[in-house]
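DATA SHEET
Item: assembly model
Revision: 1
Owner: S.N.
Input lines:
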Amino acid sequence: LSHSAALPILAFDVFGTVVDWFSTIRNEAAMLFADYGCGADPAAFALAWRAGYQPAMQRVRSGELGWTRIDDLHRLILDQILIDFNLAQVDESRRRELNLVWHRLDPWPDVVDGLSLLKTRFRVCTLSNGNLSLLSDLARHGGLQWDLILSAETFRAYKPDPASYLGVAQVFDVAPHTVTLVAAHKSDLAAARACGLRTAFIERPLECGPGTAVDISADHSFDWHAKDLIDLARQMAA
Amino acid sequence: LSHSAALPILAFDVFGTVVDWFSTIRNEAAMLFADYGCGADPAAFALAWRAGYQPAMQRVRSGELGWTRIDDLHRLILDQILIDFNLAQVDESRRRELNLVWHRLDPWPDVVDGLSLLKTRFRVCTLSNGNLSLLSDLARHGGLQWDLILSAETFRAYKPDPASYLGVAQVFDVAPHTVTLVAAHKSDLAAARACGLRTAFIERPLECGPGTAVDISADHSFDWHAKDLIDLARQMAA
């Protein structure tokens, strides 16, 4: 008999934890700026797009917007920052193509090998605010072998809504402590811990590019602290 | 740039179309019967379990039961057929383990290679009434490389509810005719066609075991008719 149904669950945050959004978006912004003769800093464009993300989700969480997928929230933010960067002349088809950059972000270099190691003793799934088709395209693009793609879209609840964390446990029909959230963001982990999940912090010092410091300090309220997914797999096997 | 976001979608029915439920369940029923000295036919047990499936889903569709996953419906049916087969003495832990047989069904022999071929020109996903953890365990058990696992559980609507078929198109943000349902059951395909999806019929003459005939006749109202997934891949590449 196969025993995969008995394996505990690792649920991964994706943007920043699994994939490097900054580099790909900065690179595509640089191509856009070259095409349109824009002299601004492409890194600032990437940071501005990402900075719009939490406020946009907050409009959904608060009820101001009905359920809206990240693809559509990314597009709302993009339309605004194109104005802010004096690029209002960018046409519809280019906007649509550019908005899909979030579907082709590269994984960090440790991710494919790290997931393979972790898969030998865990079922690995996503728990991302990214929508299902976005996560599916990222998996295909990066060769990420998830056992299951779960999203805020599955639960119609954006993290840190408890319905998202508890939803993972419910889908797998296990107690919350059987699920470990793996993330590079302490607020995400703290919300998961409050729901009874275990927590693993991953250091991603370059998440926001080389010019922006991020908090990778040790926090002993989390169950694991790892440099990357290969390090996490080694610690969990010890 | 990666273009996976531009690939059309194949959505697969799973029980019978992708995996052979009959053989695995008959085999595990035979082990159960040996352990409990039951002289009944294990094939009849497999057929009885499967026969309870549509009526159980109908209790959900009609509103008699609230949303209930297939794992739980399978358990309700199992408890009844254990009585019918004079096996009421089977204990709780064995029932729980036996109910998970639906998580470890083997794929038909053409499936792994067929999916690999089809994946070069399509995004491949499930659209099954099986719940998400069940489909995830089947994928792991059989080495099925889905781009995305979608389930009635995703949409809280059992096929043939239109919300399930249209839900696939909505998840991928495409028109319904960009999605092809692949199934061994004509009623499933007819319901998908009524929602504007394309349809591919797969012959699975042994779905219900060697002793039970199933309808594999040509029906020209479907877009494709294939002997198996490798045949479908060849036809679609032609």
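QC remark: Chain A has a mean pLDDT of 96.
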